[in-house]
Specification:
Order of helices and strands: HEHHHEEHHHHHHEEEEHEEHEH
Strand content: 5-15%
Shape: elongated
Number of helices: 13
Distance between the termini: 47 Å
Helix content: 40-55%
Strand order of the largest sheet: 4-5-6-8-10
Structural class: alpha/beta
CATH topology of the largest domain: Arc Repressor Mutant, subunit A
Number of strands: 10
Radius of gyration: 27 Å
Length: about 300
Amino acid sequence: MSIPKYHEFMKPILELLKDNQNHKRVELYKKLALQFALTKEEMEEWLPSGKQLVYKNRIGWALTYLKKARLIESPARATFKITELGQSVLLDNPSEIDPNYLRKFEGFNDFVDSSNEDTLLDENIQDNSTGESPQDLLDRAYKTISNTLTDDLLTEIMNQSPEFFEKLVVDLLVSMGYGGSKIENSQVLGKTGDEGIDGIIKEDKLGFDKIYIQAKRWDLDRTVGRPELQKFVGALTGQGATKGAFITTAQFTKDAKEYVDKQHACKIVLIDGKTLASLMIEHNLGVSIENVYYIKRIDTDYFNDESV
């Protein structure tokens, strides 16, 4: 069973609150997770933004909508209680409570109508076929944009020369903070006499340790197998190196990954095309920021200032 959509939590929340007692948000999280038999993996699934767990986010939106419809109230911070209107809904026993059902209530209509017609909220109310909350929609849109950018980056990389790619991977490691973020602490070796090593970067500012790089701009659908990794390990051994990064636009086979995991004399990190593009996006290499959106929430510390 997958994580329920946010509206699928609405009726169960009302049923949990039907005793007319105050219930903490954290208590509702636990009881609803148990009621829907969420697995450990489902309870540890994060939104693409990495800011909140998916099931908690959806329960949060369900609570918000029920509160706006005045079926529940919040007598204290992170605390909820059913209202008389909410009790009447339970007596009515609808098969499902969703945003369309909540349109029956003036408070919810005021909430929706106060939103601009072009907002995610309004569109989500009118067409609830996906059952996604506004946060779900926003995160899904962000993920789609990121995936598109990843593909565009890889396409652009494939249009460059192998020499450019070798420089790119060194630039990426520098942007990630290796070498003390100083380009002079890195070196692109090139084709002549590199003995299987395409670049070297100091791991720290003083240069006590070095990371040796193998950079291969290969076709995106090509696979990198164990033989290529064995050659890289041999090159590292020849340099007396203990750390290496094999960075490619291609994909690693399962056998190659297992071989690397078994290496004890040297630590090797594998970075495939998708991971490479994601790291470039994360560290603003080869990309620029187009827009910034701030999503704000209540600062509970401010409203819980005991010094006042």
